[in-house]
Every structure is written in C-alpha cells, then in structure tokens.
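User: My instructor asked us to take a sequence, write out its structure as tokens, and then describe one feature of it. I'm not sure where to start. Here is the sequence I was given:
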Amino acid sequence: MKLLIAEDDAFFRKILRQLLSTEFEIITAEDGTAAWNLLRQNEWPLLAILDWVMPGMSGPQVCREARASAATAETYIILLTGRNSAADIVAGLHAGADDYVTKPFEAEELRARVRLGRRVVELQMTVKAQSASLREMRQRGKTVQADFDLASSHRRALQESRSSRFSR
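Assistant: Let's start with the prediction itself. The structure tokens for your sequence are:
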C-alpha cells in the first residue's frame, strides 16, 4: 500500500522512510503543495503522514482540501507535528486529520498508528467492494424480475387467447 510522507525536514523524511519502508511503498513530498498534487493523482496514496508546518500548503490545509474532494475524501491522514497543545490537536482533527502524533514520537507508536490507518483503509475498500457487488446483485434481481414479469404477461395473454378460441 502506498504511503505519502509530506515533511519539509529532510532528516525527518529519512527517518520516516526508514521506519515505514518495510511495510509500505513510500512516496515523499517536501511541501504541502507537492503533497496535495500527489494525493490528486489517479493512483493516489490512501495513507498520508503530513507535517503541520510546510512550505506551500500546511498539513491542515491539505487535510481540508482532501476532505473537500470526493476523490481523496477517504485518504487516511495522520498529522505529525511538534504542535502539542490541546487546541492544536483539536484544530488538526477539525481540519480533517484522522489521527494526530506529536514530535518527538515513539517509533513503535507511529508504526502502530499507521498500521491502524491501513486497517481502516482496507475495511473501507472491502465495504466499497461489497456495496458495489450488492448494487450489481440488486440490478440483476431487477432484470430477472422484469424478465419474469414479461414472461408472466405473455403466459396470461396466451392463456386468454386459448380461452377465447375455446369459448367460441
């Protein structure tokens, strides 16, 4: 699964890549605008770790844009930032982040949170596939019902035709 890491600090980008590259296909961006552009691509990452403060767009701005777009609304976004006040956490979550991790972070905690994000994304994909399958089955059921109704109509017409021939 693709994971976008948007972090303007090269050192943190490298650490995050090393920490998560064994489980994810890592894509990196050095600023918020590049991150937003990567999220809008055809095969966008379904998981993203965004720094709060970046050139171009901030992490919360990218969150808001992602949530406003139908194509990227389901992307699981983790804000990773040095901002640790309750007001910052609330603001990040209100902007559309699914999770919030403060720097400095514990490596295993971050891995666990990213794995949680992957499980959420996988469940969303399963639900979406089952929903599509259910819609297809419903449509097939409507087609079968229409065929049945048509056959019943023809059978009644044939019976009426036979009845009227015998009653003459």
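For the description part of your assignment, you could build on this observation: Helices lie at 10-20, 32-39, 59-68, 86-94, 107-166. Try explaining in your own words what that tells you about the chain.
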